[in-house]
Write a structure and sequence with these properties.
single chain, mainly alpha, elongated
Length: about 70
């Protein structure tokens, strides 16, 4: 799992929201899927090293504005 279940649970519990094991797993799957998309965008954009200044490419925003 890409994310730590305990950190996800903590965020929900801080706001008094209960979260099931299945929901935590689904959130982990969603994050993993999004990270795979980010990796693919880096490959397509010929980004060999992702840095904070290039994160817009991984996010799919090719019209970067600072």
């Amino acid at each position: 799992m890409i994310i730590k279940a305990s950190q996800v649970r903590k965020l929900f519990n801080e706001r008094k929201v209960q979260i099931s094991d299945d929901a935590v797993k689904m959130i982990g799957d969603i994050v993993a899927r999004d990270v795979r998309k980010m990796v693919a965008r880096c490959v397509e954009g010929n980004v060999p090293r992702l840095t904070s200044s290039l994160i817009y490419i991984a996010l799919g925003n090719l019209t970067h504005k600072e």
